[in-house]
RNA sequence: GGGUCGGUACUCAAGCGGUCAACGAGGGCUGACUGUAAAUCAGCUGGCUUUACGCCUACGGGGGUUCGAGUCCCUCCCGGCCCA
């Protein structure tokens, strides 16, 4: 790929929108100007494939020689991105944030060149702000502008409360880019509002144009949320087998988007997938390729191949996977065993699962909930719940 | 500050004195069907046990009325809307 092609890929692949426009950004990229850009993350949860999209995009920029900063929103995490109704989320301790950040770094290293990546924390400037600074910052916004955000609108419409401090959120994350003095911000399309707030602020406070690049989200082509499959969000620290399995359970219409945003598979190859699907090829084979491509990024090729082989073994042939988590337990009664192995959350649930025929012991469906596990030999006993949860009881 | 409506399980949301562990929807889990799909269909979805028209815990907090309260009353806390 030459530079022109790379620039084109940066501007189009997995991109939902560019502000002020793709054309303007293209010009800047073609000049030899080095851009300073950042991507902000909330350190409250796990990194998942949705984040992988941004990482891939950042890597492309990095390859073109631009400067990448990853901003951990440790301070804004305390405000909480306005979701849910109670706002009762407990603030993270400094320790938790640092631990999360450390985990993030490890995962981010799979995609980005860490030597060329800076990490920063927005508490560095936000924690120091005085009330006068906050007042000055807020004076750049109108109340209605802050309330425009869809989430607020929805809550107002349905009579739910919007807390005053939540209105600060877009302003604070918007201020990050001023503090960092960047040329470009990258984020998921759901962050567009916040990113544009920052763009406005940058113009007012520094008289500088900040580009905003909003990446596509992992949704099906109709724009609908993943719905049921949301539960199959792939965390970047999932084991290869989990990751592979979760991708396989995505709906078929996510395949193409998945290739585009979550992998580095060349786009002309992705086009072939599109053609294949249009020609009624079995989507399963493409989904397997996708799963393998994604697992390869985070765990390497070997692990990906193994995950695929395990997947076939368990789901096509109905056998047990090779490596099952082994647990030593005290309980003997099957109900207690299920609870102790965490396959069931409570004894009641354990009984329900058995009644529903969800529990297998060494491949045999269990119908008796008074079953006693006594003689555990050296090979152990495999307990299966549903299709994909296995635990091996060992001595 | 005044008026008014409201606070129910993971979420939304019924409920108007007993038959309420609480309708319905979403989500989750399990089963069938499959390509571990998705869609669809079915069951389950507070806990405990002797699995029973059983016991305990739950309908913002506390108190009361009643044989009996998510449901009525008092009070406190919190929110929406209107007025100031």
User: What oligomeric state best describes the polypeptide chains here?
Assistant: single chain
State the distance separating the first and last CA atoms.
Answer: 56 Å
Second-tier CATH architecture of the largest domain: 3-Layer(aba) Sandwich
Q: How many distinct helices?
A: 18
Order of helices and strands: HEHEHEHHEHHHHHEHEHHHHHEHHEEEE
Q: Under the CATH scheme, which class of the largest domain? A: Alpha Beta
Biggest sheet details: 6 strands, mixed
Strand order of the largest sheet: 1-6-5-2-3-4
Structural commentary:
The chain is of the alpha/beta class and 395 residues long. Helices cover 48% and strands 13% of the residues. The strands form two sheets. The protein has a six-stranded mixed sheet, sandwiched between helices. A five-stranded mixed sheet has the order 7-11-10-8-9, with no helix packed on it. The structure holds one RNA strand of 84 nucleotides.
Summarize the helices and strands and which ones pair or pack.
Elements: H1 3-12, E1 15-19, H2 22-30, E2 36-41, H3 49-63, E3 67-72, H4 76-79, H5 94-108, E4 117-121, H6 123-126, H7 131-138, H8 143-147, H9 150-157, H10 164-180, E5 184-188, H11 192-206, E6 211-215, H12 240-248, H13 255-262, H14 267-278, H15 283-299, H16 301-316, E7 326-328, H17 334-340, H18 347-355, E8 359-361, E9 364-365, E10 381-385, E11 389-394
Parallel strand pairs: 2-3, 2-5, 3-4, 5-6, 7-11
Antiparallel strand pairs: 1-6, 8-9, 8-10, 10-11
The chain binds one RNA strand of 84 nucleotides through residues 84-85, 156, 158-161, 227-231, 245, 248-254, 282-285, 287-288, 311, 314-316, 346-349, 351-353, 355-358, 385-388.
């Amino acid at each position: 790929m030459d530079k022109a092609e790379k620039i084109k890929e940066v501007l189009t692949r997995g991109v939902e929108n560019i502000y002020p426009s793709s054309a303007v950004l293209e010009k800047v990229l073609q000049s030899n100007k080095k851009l300073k850009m950042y991507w902000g993350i909330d350190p409250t949860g796990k990194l998942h494939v949705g984040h992988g999209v941004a990482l891939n995009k950042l890597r492309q920029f990095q390859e073109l020689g631009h400067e990448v900063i990853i901003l951990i929103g440790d301070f804004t995490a305390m405000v909480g991105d306005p979701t849910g109704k109670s706002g009762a989320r407990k603030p993270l301790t400094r320790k938790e944030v640092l631990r999360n950040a450390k985990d993030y770094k490890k995962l981010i290293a799979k995609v980005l060149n860490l030597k060329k990546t800076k990490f920063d924390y927005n508490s560095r400037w936000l924690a120091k702000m005085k009330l006068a600074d906050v007042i000055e910052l807020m004076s750049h916004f109108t109340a209605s502008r802050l309330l425009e955000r869809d989430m607020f609108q929805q809550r107002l419409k349905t009579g739910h409360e919007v807390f005053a401090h939540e209105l600060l959120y877009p302003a604070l994350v918007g201020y990050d880019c001023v503090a960092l003095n960047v040329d470009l911000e990258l984020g998921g399309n759901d962050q567009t509002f916040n990113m544009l707030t920052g763009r406005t602020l940058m113009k007012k406070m520094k008289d500088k144009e900040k580009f905003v690049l909003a990446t596509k989200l992992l949704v099906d082509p109709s724009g609908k949320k993943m719905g049921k499959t949301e539960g199959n969000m792939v965390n970047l620290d999932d084991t290869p087998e989990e990751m592979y399995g979760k991708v396989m359970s995505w709906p078929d219409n996510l395949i193409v988007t998945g290739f585009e945003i979550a992998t580095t598979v060349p786009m002309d190859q992705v086009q072939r997938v599109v053609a294949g699907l249009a020609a009624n090829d079995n989507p399963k084979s493409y989904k397997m390729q996708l799963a393998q491509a994604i697992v390869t990024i985070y765990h390497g090729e070997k692990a990906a191949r193994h995950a695929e082989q395990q997947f076939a073994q368990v789901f096509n042939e109905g056998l047990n996977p090779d490596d099952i988590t082994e647990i030593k337990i005290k309980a003997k009664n099957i109900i207690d065993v299920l609870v102790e192995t965490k396959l069931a959350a409570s004894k009641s649930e354990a009984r329900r699962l058995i009644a529903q025929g969800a529990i297998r012991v060494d491949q045999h469906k269990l119908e008796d909930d008074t079953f006693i596990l006594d003689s555990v030999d050296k090979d152990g006993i495999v307990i299966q719940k549903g299709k994909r949860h296995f635990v091996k009881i060992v001595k």
